[in-house]
């Protein structure tokens, strides 16, 4: 088991946001976290990497409970995070953005060089010196993923990678995620878009109002249209 | 012609230190979002340390090595400060950060006097830069030429550091989005520490390099920090190029301003700053900031007018205070009058800070203007006391109207820096324009008329004015204007959207607050019988901030309690120790770190907990922090 989350509760100020979240991600697996806007997908990811400070529960990554560690230490341990709103550094060039994400080679994880990433995202290779603020939304989305991969992660939390992208770019995104999977990176991808999730995922969880209300394989999810219709807007 | 050219070079040479300090401040602000008030203190420490080290070691190596070693030692002190103090307040509102670093400045002032003594120290001349170069009959010190060459070199080195090293890339990334940098596996703590070390190193180097040009003394810190604030406001906070250009600009304005207005050369700098602020409020090379972080206003306990019981209690307290002359002696009554005046002053600042969300770091300007107003009217025009008291504060009103117009264009730290710079400009004018203000000697013989001359009647007068001022300010808080002001404080965008002219509301609040401060100053002039530039000084401005903080920023009228406790403690402290700045500074730092809600704020919290025990969870997190 790569990642095991249990009894995760999170708070923003006095507001209780996540309730006893539990999820598991196996070696080399792609797991989808599905849910509507505001269901708690991003908060789940932010809580796992420690960006939500007020949280309790167990977060076991690579056999160690990392819930007491600060964000940078969790990420240094090989747990990559790609935020939702892209959050690239707009004043920095593509190369510099990648530099911020760079971490040393990890023996047990795929190793990413700039060249390798530019074959995965050819657009980026053509604009290495362009400031992040002058890239299109799709290019920025690719840059955030590439930036996180520069840290040679064992597992990546990918927050709504298809959001706001054109169908053509979404296709490239699917390719990129499958390529990451082939390299051996485990992935948790949060999505509202079931079609997109189906193209890449092995299993899925559904989150609604801060609670996990379904967990199973994609086939099991397809067998339960009632759950799908109740919790996902298609 | 040659003379003007030499004057120009002198300006460039002065720009070197200014640039070093300002760039350090900018770099620190860029990443940590803290405006390090203590930067002037580090500059001064650099100068003292360099003085000691260059005296100890001889020869060229001893001199240059001493300069660099001094900057390194001070940078190490900076690291200690960052780890012990700043790490605790990165999430605190900016007002608290400014105050804590100011507290540090106060402590350093006493510490350098303890170590190096109160006298000016003359440092060694730089080896091989002792002479002067002749330029068409004018002498240019060769050390000046060295400094002129140095600043572009430093600029270049900094540019390389930020553009060409991994550390520089990380710092620039953190300037934009700190959390994201952490989410990519970078330990922010050490990044912050290293940035702070670099910034302090630059400040200390700036100080150390001044010793061949200038005497080292214990007032260097405030002098440089005000100039640096002006530089970063003009150049744009966070921009190194901006710091460079603005440092040159300000230094040249000073160099040539002296030729045009020999007495009040600072006016020229002020005019340029005003123009820049109108055209580009975020400075020549700065970037418009996203909506400023919220200053106090995350009120846990909603404000409400006093209940009738509380009104009776306040009235009772007032009656009790009015009975003081029945049993207290003259000294106690004079102290009582002074406290009442400080209540007026603190309440006026509290109105601006807590209700308006505008933390002024130069509020003494309006207090002092009111005092000078009275002094002019009473001495020069010979008006009776009651007329002077009524008209004198108008000078405070006028100052607040002019400076406030510029200041409210900004918010947050820019507002704080600008108000401080304005106050310092007013102070300089009072200090330098001897023919009108008497300069350092002040204006003497401003005595009250007969009806108010006894300590008891003056005490009653002060008390009555204080009660009236506090009551009026409270009424304003709960008036429609007060609602508009608080709405603007809490959300400028939303209040604009419902038709509130935010800038005008804030400007009006600024004028009200400045006028009330002026009333306090007017009484103060009569209490002391004289007016000095001190009444406009930074330390008085900071006293006011501490009073507000001590009472509680999040309260409606906490400043009253804050002023009483602070002033009483201050009078006692000054009589007990020579190191009052050290104690006061330490107290400010402690208060910001451990006790941010102040006396009244803490009492309110306790009372609410007592009333509703089930709400404990919300109170458990009752530290004042800003949401990011």
UniProtKB/TrEMBL annotation, chain A:
Task: Write down a Pfam family by its short name.
Answer: ABC_tran
Task: Give yes or no: UniProt keyword Lyase.
Answer: no
Q: What does the protein in this record do?
A: Involved in beta-(1-->2)glucan export. Transmembrane domains (TMD) form a pore in the inner membrane and the ATP-binding domain (NBD) is responsible for energy generation.
- GO biological processes: L-amino acid transport
Q: Which residue intervals define the domain ABC transporter in the entry?
A: 3-234
**Keyword vocabulary terms for this entry:** Amino-acid transport, ATP-binding, Nucleotide-binding, Transport
GO terms for MF: ATP binding; ATP hydrolysis activity; branched-chain amino acid transmembrane transporter activity
UniProt-recorded name of the protein = ABC transporter ATP-binding protein
What organism does the UniProt record list as the source? Answer: Bradyrhizobium valentinum
Cross-referenced Gene3D superfamilies: P-loop containing nucleotide triphosphate hydrolases
- Keyword presence, Nucleotide-binding: yes
UniProtKB/TrEMBL annotation, chain B:
Output the Gene Ontology cellular-component terms.
Answer: plasma membrane
GO MF term list: branched-chain amino acid transmembrane transporter activity
* Ligase in keyword set: no
Tell me where the transmembrane regions lie. 6-27, 34-51, 63-86, 98-117, 145-162, 190-212, 224-249, 256-279, 312-333, 340-361, 381-406, 413-434, 458-485, 505-527, 547-570, 582-603
Q: Which family does it belong to?
A: Belongs to the binding-protein-dependent transport system permease family. LivHM subfamily.
Top-rank taxon, per record: Bacteria
Please list the GO biological process terms of this entry: amino acid transport
UniProt keywords, alphabetically: Amino-acid transport, Cell membrane, Membrane, Transmembrane, Transmembrane helix, Transport
What compartments host this protein? Cell membrane
Q: How does it sit in the membrane?
A: Multi-pass membrane protein
Q: What is this protein called?
A: ABC transporter permease
- Main localization, broad class: membrane
